[in-house]
Amino acid sequence: MATSLFLAVVLGVATPPARAAEPVALAAIVVEEDRVEFQFSGPVRESVRFEENPPRLLIDLPNVRLTAADRVFEGRGGVLKKVRAGQLSSELVPVARCVVELETYVLYGIQWDGNVMSLALGNAARMPLPPPSLRKDEAPVPAQPAAVKPAAAPVQPAAVKPAAAPAKPAAAPAGAFQVQVGSFSDEVRAKALKTAIEASVSPVTVESVSVSGKTFYQVKAGSFKSRPAAEEAARKLKADGHASAYVVKRK
Hints:
Layout: H1 2-12, E1 24-32, E2 35-40, E3 47-51, E4 56-62, E5 64-66, E6 72-74, E7 80-89, E8 95-102, E9 108-113, E10 116-121, H2 123-126, E11 177-184, H3 187-197, E12 204-211, E13 214-224, H4 227-239, E14 246-249
């Protein structure tokens, strides 16, 4: 009897399951010539495998929810045939899957830039991306000969300075958090979204960023001093139909 009671006590103490991390959003997919870019709201660990018949790449993304509005894309370039995205699992740990259909077996490469994953195929995989610090329109400035200093002018009596004007009060610091509502390769679409949400949140800005040599236009809303306030604004924007809204830190 004593043994049975001991087992009952031991088995009755259960450890609650660990809470899963907050899922990351796959907010947008951009298809270029033999390149695909995936824009996430946070860091992701991808799992990639190749299938021969038909030739394609399967990219599984654990703890990712697919919020991108467009999910099927026709391919561009010599080897990229089609890109399809879907929610493979919506359980405790959601898993999104992207299927990249190919014309034939090719080399591929994956490169991360912040929360943007770039997939390059075929010849595009062999071309290294230029570092972001170099721009094509910047040429080195030739060295200039040292200028000859003129002779020093005679010393003049010091002029009487007027009284200094009172210092202007410092501007209030901008909030550390914003809500990114969308990111587009088309500036017209970004400005259209800005106009659509200005009635419910302000300020709204459109910022251009360069990712892997391509320009994107990010629509950011609000200026919040705390993350909870920014998350509340993101929830309201999602309720209005902007499913890809998420909180970002002001750069």
